[in-house]
Amino acid sequence: MAPQQALTIARQKGLDLVEVAPMAQPPVCRIMDFGKYQYQEQKRTREARKHQKIIEVKEIKFRPKVDEHDFQFKKNHIERFLADGDKVKATVFFRGREMAHPDIGRRILERLIRELSDVAVPESMPRMEGNTMHTILSHKPGSKPQAPKPAPPAVLSGIEGN
């Protein structure tokens, strides 16, 4: 159909003539309400944005002389972050003479990777940058993110009054 003929039909119906595929031979046009089309597209993108999950990178810092309890405590935090769908950057921070022993930091991060192997996969192996050594952990692709287990309810003993 000739462009002028299509334009007169669109004006008679109170609609717009919109070019859909300009590179096609001949170019393809459509008669529609362009304002309504733009509004529906905005609605679709807003709805899609509402349902998407933004992945954050959380950071957990260790020291070369980390105690066993502190290590386990921070490991539990990492498991919780991974269960929420976030990525975790595990960092070992060196000060002063500790810089002479990067192997200690590497062992800490490799142990962390080994103990979290069922829920996490390392995106990068531990590497040294300045006075820090870090690795990035993300949720394991095959497993489903799980919320951490809730603590068991406290048991109250029978306290007798006076």
Mind explaining what this structure looks like?
The protein is α+β, with helices and mostly antiparallel strands and 162 residues long. The chain has two domains: 3-51, Translation initiation factor 3 (IF-3), N-terminal domain (Ubiquitin-like (UB roll), Roll); 57-139, Translation Initiation Factor IF3. Helix content is 36%, strand content 23%. It has four helices and seven strands. It has helices at 3-13, 34-51, 68-83, 102-115, and strands at residues 16-21, 28-32, 57-62, 87-93, 120-122, 127-129, 132-139. Strands 3, 4, 5, 6 and 7 form a five-stranded mixed sheet that branches. It has a two-stranded antiparallel sheet with strand order 1-2. Strand 6 (127-129) and strand 7 (132-139) form a beta hairpin. The mean pLDDT is 84.
SSE topology:
Blueprint: H1 3-13, E1 16-21, E2 28-32, H2 34-51, E3 57-62, H3 68-83, E4 87-93, H4 102-115, E5 120-122, E6 127-129, E7 132-139
Parallel strand pairs: 3-4
Antiparallel strand pairs: 1-2, 4-7, 5-7, 6-7
Summarize the structure.
With 162 residues, the protein is α+β, with helices and mostly antiparallel strands. It has helices at 3-13, 34-51, 68-83, 102-115; strands spanning 16-21, 28-32, 57-62, 87-93, 120-122, 127-129, 132-139.
